[in-house]
Amino acid sequence: MSDPRSQIREFVVQNFLFGENGDMTDDASFLAQGIIDSTGVLELVSHIEKTYGIRVRDEELTPDNLDSINAVVAYVERKLEEKGWVMVDG
Amino acid sequence: MVLAFFSVGLNTPGSGTVKAPGNHSLDLDPGNECSRIAHWLRRVLATTLRRRGVVVGVSGGVDSAVTATLATQALGKERVLVLLMPERHSSPETLDLSRLVAERLGVRVVEEDITGVLEALGFYRRYEAAVHQVIPEFGSGWSSKLVTSGVAAGRPYPVFSVIARAPNGLEVRQRLPVEVYLEIVAATNFKQRTRKMFEYYHADRLNYAVAGTPNRLEYDQGFFVKNGDGAADLKPIAHLYKTQVYQLAEYLDVPEEIRKRPPTSDTYSMSQGQDEFFFGLPFEQMDLCLYGKNEGLEARVVAEAARLTPEQVQAVWADIDRKRSGTRYLHMAPLLLHTL
After folding, report:
1. Which has fewest Cβ within 10 Å: A1, B79, B181, B217?
2. Span B156-177, mean pLDDT?
3. What residues of A are in contact with residue B178 (Cβ under 8 Å)?
4. Closest B-chain CA to A38
5. Does B19 score more than 50 pLDDT?
6. Strand B159-165 vs strand B171-175: parallel, antiparallel, or unpaired?
7. Could A39 and B179 be called an inter-chain contact, meaning their C-beta atoms sit closer than 8 Å?
8. Could you tell me if residue A87 is inside a domain?
9. What is the span of the domain harbouring residue A39?
10. A88 located within any domain
11. B91 falls in which pLDDT band (50, 70, 90)?
12. pTM of the entire structure?
């Protein structure tokens, strides 16, 4: 199984870009780059909740947590740490 | 550019106008504007659309009332057909106000209750099943609506929730997962598309055109259903901010009950303001923000007029850009690989 960063990146590339990721970097803003719109954010949240078994609270729906690959990975790591889980690469 | 705004009325339909020095103002000359629209209506019907009149779906709101009145003044009452299209969830007030508009104008009126069509399409069943996923108790006797807490709550991302009221008056609010949100929207869009189907049926049989009724806020921000209320042959007030529509409504003597009625979507079984579902702010503030953005005004100037902070205005402007981007496809004709 791939590492969480790869999983999240794969989801974004496949779900929103139909596999044509171009040169999207891990710190590229989803909103600024036009990669994800408001409905897309809901899809991303749903994916995170189902994949990692976490609940994204309303107040956590912010660009700081969700507007790039790096932001999502960091957010998911924090949420899993709150649950006492650790993300394992590889 | 520094402009002073005066007499900004908030939360009172019909009173929110903005005055500014020079040419920058939401105030318009209603007489001139009505003449301009009337001339345009006659010209496009005669030379571009080649239709003999217009069909207007009237909802009891100010936009459709103004559109129907403008059409009647421009074309004569014998060339306007007003359609009333209630369904099970429509408020009784909607039908009463719609009839009032038609009676005042003296135009022909056809009432098409779309409940049966929506039943056949499975709308009520689909909608109830969708809400049931997040509120298992939801069922017969309950009412509900979709709401968003977006930019007004300082959120760059909207949070969509359903509010449901039980027969005993108890209200429940649940945030919607994406698939339930999309199902509710998709099912509800049956209403706008069914209404448009009837508008075109009557337009076809009369050789008329269909008049759409969006104001500038709705048109600009994509607050319409593609192939539903977004479909029309002409949109006579799409260039007017909502506050300007109210100015025309007053000039045209649209019934006061309609001018004083807060804008609603009249789409859900619970009363739902447009600001609850889509805009996130009352239209007076949205008008000011959109106007300021379109005119290149400074955020602090708009903030003062709209009674917001400059940071909130910036957030609204960012939301305007997001909605423009997110709803751009609603305005598009089908895309082709290359121009034919």
Report:
1. A1
2. 90
3. 39, 42-43, 45-46
4. B157
5. no
6. antiparallel
7. no
8. no
9. 4-20+27-82
10. no
11. confident
12. 0.87
- What is the arithmetic mean of pLDDT over A20-48? 89
B243 CA: distance to closest CA in chain A (Å): 27
Partner residue facing A38 (CB), from B158, B175, B177 = B158
| Contact call for B177 and A46, based on CB within 8 A | yes
Q: Please name the residue of chain A whose CA is at the shortest distance from the CA of residue B182.
A: A39
Tally of domains within chain A: 1
In a domain, A90, yes or no: no
Across B182-317, the runs of DSSP E, i.e. the strands, are 209-211
Stretch (H or E) spanning B80: strand B80-84
B149 contact A CB<8A:
yes
- Closest residue in A to B278 (Cα–Cα): A38
CB B13 within 8 A of CB B261: yes
The DSSP annotation for chain A comes to ---HHHHHHHHHHHHHHTT--TT--TT--TTTTTS--HHHHHHHHHHHHHHH-----GGG-SHHHHSSHHHHHHHHHHHHHHTT------
Q: What is the CATH number of domain B30-115+189-268+280-327?
A: 3.40.50.620
Q: Do B157 and A46 touch (CB under 8 A)?
A: no
Q: How many CB atoms lie within 10 A of CB B284?
A: 28
Per-residue burial over B59-81, b = 16 or more CB atoms within 10 Å of its CB, e = otherwise: bbbbbbbbbbbbbbbbbeeebbb
Reduce the DSSP state of residue B82 to 3 states and report it.
strand
- Amino acid, single-letter form, for residue B34: C
Which residues on A lie below 8 Å from B175 (Cβ)?
58
Structure tokens at B295: 């005119």
The answer as to whether A11 is a domain residue is: yes
What ipTM is given for this predicted complex? Answer: 0.84
What is the reported pLDDT for A86? 63
Question: Using the beta-carbon criterion (under 8 Å), do B175 and A43 form an inter-chain contact?
Answer: no
Asked if B178 and A61 come within 8 Å (Cβ–Cβ), the reply is: no
| CATH code of residue A78 | 1.10.1200.10
